[in-house]
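pinging the channel bc i need a second pair of eyes. not urgent but kinda urgent?? the chain im working w is below, pasted from the shared doc
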Amino acid sequence: MFSSCLAILEKADDETIKQFEAVIRNRPEEGAWLFYSGKGDIKSVMLDPRARFEYYIDHIINQFYLGCETPLPRLFSTPGFTEASANAALELQEMLINPIQRYIKRQVEKDVFDSVLVQAGFDPVEARIRLSWGSPETPEVVMADLIKAAEQGLIRPEEFRKNATKFGWELWEDKTAK
């Protein structure tokens, strides 16, 4: 059984709280005695070593993924997390990234570009320098690659037909396929 103490210091003054903090920070590994001044309450916290920590570990892993700011590792580690789930999570992540990019853009334009222009003898208002992040690049689909993927069985015939129509191919309904 693992035991620890929880100190509840209701209406404690700053000096009392600092004393508790100092004792807790400087305690040896095997534990330390906390001397109770009579203010607040001290409760023992017991933890059975047979307790399961899956939810706690899942929480830590989720926090790690949030810190990485990408859901892609979940594709490899979380059962049931599909590519569609990852794409939806990336779209949500973009909603967090875009305001950060706008903030950085404003700061760089104001603090960096304007300063450089002024030092070079130009008027920043007249120069109208703007930072552009561009848009995410989508890979170019080449028809030869699409045909090769269909020949190798990497895509289904209906997927090939759907993509071929995007290239302007006029295709009739395949009555033999069922």
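so The beta strands are 2-8, 41-47. and The two ends are 64 Å apart (CA to CA). — does that match what u expected or am i reading it wrong
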